[in-house]
Fold this protein.
Amino acid sequence: MTKQIHLAAHFPGVNNTTVWSDPAAGSHIEFDSFRQFAQTAERGKFDFLFLAEGLRLREQNGLIYDLDVVGRPDTFTILAALAAVTEHVGLTGTINSTFNEPYEVARQFASLDHLSGGRAAWNVVTSWDAFTGENFRRGGYLAQGDRYERARTFLATANELWDSWHGDEILADKDTSQFLATAAPGAFRHRDAFFDIAGQFNVPRSPQGRPVIFQAGDSDEGRDFAAASADAIFSRHSTLEAGQAFYADVKGRLPKFGRTRGELLILPAATFVLGDTDAEAAEIARDVRRAQVSPQTALKFIEQLWNTELSGFDVDGPLPAFDPAVSDNLISKGRASVRQFAKDPVALAAGWRARAEAGKLSAREVVIEVTGRQSFIGSAETIATTINELVQADAADGYILVPHITPGGLTSFVDHVVPLLQERGVFRADYTGITLRDHLGLAPLRRPGETTTTRAAS
Amino acid sequence: MTSAPAGLQAPLHLAVALDGAGWHPAAWREADAQPQRLFTAGYWTGLAQQAERGLLDFLTIEDGLDLQSDDRFQADARLDRVRGRLDAVLIAARAAPATRHIGFVPTAITTHTEPFHLSKAIATLDYVSSGRAGIRVQVAVRAGTAAHFGRRESPPLRADRLADPDVRRLIADHFDEAADYVEVLRRLWDSWEDDAEIRDVSTGRFIDRNKLHYIEFEGRRFSVKGPSITPRPPQGQPIIAALGHASVPYQLIARSADVGFVTPRDAAHAAEIVAQIRTEQARAGRAAQTVHVFGDLVVFLDETRTAAIARRQRLDERAGAEYRSDARVYAGTAAGLADLMQDWQAAGLSGFRLRPAALPHDLMHLTERLVPELQRRGLFRARYEADTLRGLLGLARPANRYAAA
């Protein structure tokens, strides 16, 4: 059976994918940029918008990192405001489970779901680092190994809070004077190693019952967490082979949690460059990669992998001949990608050098090669065909597109690629449902206590 | 503090306090009430637009991290009251793009939340409203609220124990934390200088990091490093407000806030409260700064005093008890209310936060009767004269505390 493609739009983020130096690049903080981006996604009938989050500005060599976009809005607040200027598109926010408390996050998402008419989604992320903790009451309190366990119980606790209202408590009957049908709505009691809380949740059940749950982790633990409790995965495996392997692995984990394949969507992040022809797109893509990896940025990447400050290093010459400094103390702080570098930096650096030799590449060119490739490059026809083939081949259920220009980078995709997918009958011509669950093809959640012959979704 | 020449009063500032279906517990049962819509965006957007038609300075939105209760210190089990509420900051963010002039001052609880999160939330509210954001800070002393977070012990309080020394210490401690919290909000809002974003292609730098600042706050309840993840908001410093009924909260208002909401019994009491706040303000070295003191009033407004009193009685009968409030309750005509406001203004108040007893009735009357009455008396604006909330309140955009002079 032909699968329907899901599409989402990631507001350009604070890494070097975003080309702020382009003359077309607009503000990353003014509401108009967000409004324009969201309305473009909605014009393209996208499933949802996606916002990332970071709770401490990144540093390198003890200084705030200044080469990428810096600064972003509060996730909940900007999504609530976007609900005012859109009608259909889902609103997915990344919120950290480490530096928040379940009661507050649960009521913020329930509120967002009410205020958007059932369009809220939560990308659950975790961190443990003391660096970020310096901005919060608890500080860096969590052992690294505990972060998934805390995220798991955080989400389980939030689910209990959302389910504490069943949806039939509010009568608001003026004649009988009964506002409530029950004297203790929202009653809950939760105790585990991380949370010991009890009382009454104060937000009535929201249109979707709870936000759609996204998960982004890639480790074995992260995949199990997603298979157990997420509705969708924000993955980074956008190619055919890696996508199919990830897809098969994660969907294969669902049965052990009593779930079916349709209950968890795999949505990799994907960048794209559109041209009138494939050749033109390839040329633009090369220029974009060079803009994404300026000489200054190339140097910072090399410093990150070598874990060494290299001021004065010539990025147009060869990579450093010496090996990276292996240490638990990294010169780069607050950047998840650096943890990949830190796993085995000596081997990774050797791989970079081999690539440089094989292609006769300068240090900067190597960085461009290893970091900058766009997921989809080509004419609208080529990109539409590629995306459809990948989805039909079970490399994904759709893609979360990450444009490199704010806020206009989505427009060409919506104008040229979306109509081709619609013509082929693999993407909606218009919204047919109301909630984000509807857009994603997820069945409505049953209310707690509702009797049913099948397993109640949770 | 500026005072107008004798015989001429300065214009008043006017805010409306939104809470559920109105402040009277039986308000939701009125014929024009819309209790089924309390949890929808349309309800709040409609109220905000109505308040804006009345040219009000701002609206406030009540909030709490627990279910409403008629008992100040613990949950009740009543079925006949509005229960449940949405996050006030998010209501404000949802409604702000549907308005153009009115300010939004939602309530946030300082006791159990993170100042880092709230700082960027209000900065973002300021961005989405183009400079119309504020925050009303409130402490939470109920033990039941603390149990929702499970992170600190909070002994059960009772009305008859409020004078006990340990209870007074506990409450003072909550207000000390609130003052620290406000200090962190303000430092984080200033942690980016206005021109920190430089987009210098030649050096590859998006920001000038010398214009971003660590705030290095260390307090008893929390430490915050900074800088904020959100650039300095359009107003520089969004408005901070607090409600107070006693000397401890008056200190918070005097030391930390731009607007204080107070609950005088009469004009003489208003003068006493204002004097206390001014004294504390001077002690805190803020004598030269504008701190607005607004009188809170619960209002039942009708065409005649008789009608207003009758409506109040009808609502009281429905509720099963006479309505009592921390604020003075006024039932009467717009003209009578304008007289009272003029009287209290002469005692030193610069504005009022009116709590409509029932929505939409008392908000409609406020905007369609009271505002024209105040305009006739030369006490209220005829059109919005500023684009930001600070502008409406006569506050300049402040210099950044971290910027080199």
About this structure: The two ends of chain B are 26 Å apart (CA to CA). The CA atoms of residues 160 and 167 of chain B lie 11 Å apart. Residues 13-149+238-392 of chain B form a domain with the TIM Barrel fold (CATH 3.20.20.30). Chain B has eleven helices and 13 strands.
